[in-house]
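Fold this sequence, please.
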Amino acid sequence: PMTTIRGRSMDPSRTRPSAACSASNCAGLLCASRRSPPRIVVIGGGISGVELAGELAALRTRADRPWPTPPEVTLVGGSSRLVPILRPGVGARTERALAAQQVDVRTATRVVEVGDGWVEVERGGASSRVDCALALWVGGIAPAPILAGLGLPRTDEGWLAVGPTLQCFPGGAGRAEVFACQMHSIARCIVGHGPS
């Protein structure tokens, strides 16, 4: 899906990682400030964004961390709740778990612009700027275009439709010898909810 930022359309799935995001440069960003912790903004409140924010926040408790101060983490999600593909209770528990890890969770919040050292966000018509050492975009995940030409059953959103065993024959139609492992399918099998 296309995302509009200040009237310009951009497709996050087609953007290339910046050279500034190389492993050595990221380590440099995390080590740059010895007095205050660097802030990392994770953009995307789905499964991948939640996992990344949680892993970054867990760096606080690592005794062997290679930088002097662990990062502070802000998670920005456009939906009114986290992991909206799953049941509402899962999103609420996820938000509580991230809050316990001191993640600054901002739901129903849209990113409107990203600059050098900051992310501008908007919620309910009010905008604010979040200063950060690093912003990581993990939102806007969409099915790969190749799925349309495979001749396999798909959901209304375009993902492969699977049964509880991850086989592409939900409801008896499709091909039992084809298995699909995609984040939406895994979520459905683990939690019993999501696209079929």
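Helices lie at 23-32, 47-58, 88-100, 183-191. The mean pLDDT is 77.
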